[in-house]
Amino acid sequence: ELFTSNAHLQTALYAERDIAGLLKSYVEKEENRLNRVRQLAEDYERHSNKALENIDKYLGNPINAFLLIKRFTLDWDRDVIPIISNNTWDAMFQEIEQVRSDLPTHEDLKGAASALMRLQDTYHLDTSTVAHGDLGGVVSPVLSVEECFELGRLSYNEGDFYHTMLWMEQALDEHSKSVKNRNINRGSERGERESDVFADSEDMDWTRIEVLDYLAFSYFKLGDLSQALELTNELLNIDPNHERAVNNKKYFEAMLQDETRKKRSSDENKKPGYQQNRDEYRNSEEFLTYEALCRGEDVMPVKNAHKLTCRYLTNNHPLLLLQPAKEETVHFDPWVVIYHDVMSDEEIKQIKHLATPRLNRATVQNAKTGALETANYRISKSAWLKGEEHPVVEKLNKRMEAITGLDMDTAEELQIANYGLGGHYEPHFDFARKEEKDAFKSLGTGNRIATFLNYMSDVEAGGATVFPYVGLKLFPKKGNAAFWYNLYRNGEGIYNTRHAACPVLVGTKWVANKWIHERGQEFRRPCSVNPDA
Ligand SMILES: O=C(O)CCC(=O)C(=O)O
Ligand SMILES: [Fe+2]
């Protein structure tokens, strides 16, 4: 089971606490046992010392002889074996194994590393800045040489040589610095700890060799042969007999001399079809705009920005007369509004709990992975009574109905998403295109006419909702909601509503999404042949 969200990763924290408890009680049991083993040893020692003082006299007494024999038969089996045979470890190991399913796996590690790489790309994060504990201005742990190396190696295993290069360079830099520091310190320690220092520096050479090996190869893969050769030479300076490096050196030198072969090899290095399409999309204008918006850049002027307004909205609805909705228009075409303070903290707490009923332990039921690194939950009507909404959901439905004037009975069930590490949702339409005729057929309620997106958390950094075609960006604020129509009155899709959820850089993002459908809106939002009406 993969750890797809921060809410889910929480179980790993509980598991870690359990393991700490297990290990401590293990140590306590072992300490008791070892004390008894020590006592036993002392007992034997005392006894034998005494007996050995005068062996003949001791063994000459038949009672002594009898007791000696008893000691190593009856007493041994009954008292000694249980103490010296150690099954405490096995018992503890079994208990730890039971916690295993609550712990992340190597699959998760791969996912976490590639999420970090995505964040680095989207938010233009400098490798050394991240490694030194600055995540876009937010303080994070400093990464050691070994940790940078592992990030490089995980990228390497994914065939991502660009990020391999970045993180191995970082590992190499930090390694050089620590060698320098060590040499300075060594000057003052010379003499006393010579052998220690020697062992350590061998260790350090070994690290450097490994880093150089990966780094040279990723430069080669990236097409920078001279850099690959230079690093290989550096490696050979440390270890002239490194077999792969010796061979690579010959190979790189020959390639550098032969331009035609160099060309051919870059063809050989062509990525498989999927990876290439993926790379092409990541370089597309849409994707680059999406990423720029995520970083908070203004990619194009917002049309009629000076006319954007706020207003209190009652719709003459009893629910809103006492507490009007606070509507802020943030875009005209397409029309996008923010409603302020739609959900209270208490309601948010309850909805999160409904979505993730057994989050605190083991399996999260009905959690399925939708977009990457995101756990999606649907609050089904039977979450409460069969066929009925939970009161807190019902209340929210009524409020959304009062605000939008749209019928919520034909809407989809409330969809909750918890975005975790790098969790995001790439540009998409919420409505079904003409060519996707059957998309919502089974629902029998027509296309998704509108989206009501409730933000259930603040996000420390990242996690905006952005509209790349019109340059609009919305930053989540707990309790606020975004609302827009996906369809014109004539049922045609509004293509400029294409939008995306930016990767979460720091924090956790929770949203509750309500997709409202066409059916039921005939009198609430009458159709028109004029699409602009
Ligand atoms: O989470 C967001 O900001 C947008 C989510 C979204 O677009 C969707 O779930 O369809
Ligand atoms: Fe969406």
UniProtKB/TrEMBL annotation:
Keywords: Coiled coil, Dioxygenase, Endoplasmic reticulum, Glycoprotein, Iron, Metal-binding, Oxidoreductase, Signal, TPR repeat, Vitamin C. Its EC number is 1.14.11.2. Pfam families: 2OG-FeII_Oxy_3, P4Ha_N, TPR_P4H. Residues 258-281 are annotated as: Disordered. It is an enzyme of class 1 (oxidoreductase). It comes from the Eukaryota. Residues 410-518 form the Fe2OG dioxygenase domain. GO terms for cellular component: endoplasmic reticulum lumen. TPR repeats lie at residues 209-242. Its cofactor is L-ascorbate. It is found in: Endoplasmic reticulum lumen. Residues 27-54 form a coiled coil. GO terms for molecular function: iron ion binding; L-ascorbic acid binding; procollagen-proline 4-dioxygenase activity. The keyword Endoplasmic reticulum applies. Catalyzes the post-translational formation of 4-hydroxyproline in -Xaa-Pro-Gly- sequences in collagens and other proteins. Belongs to the P4HA family. This is procollagen-proline 4-dioxygenase.
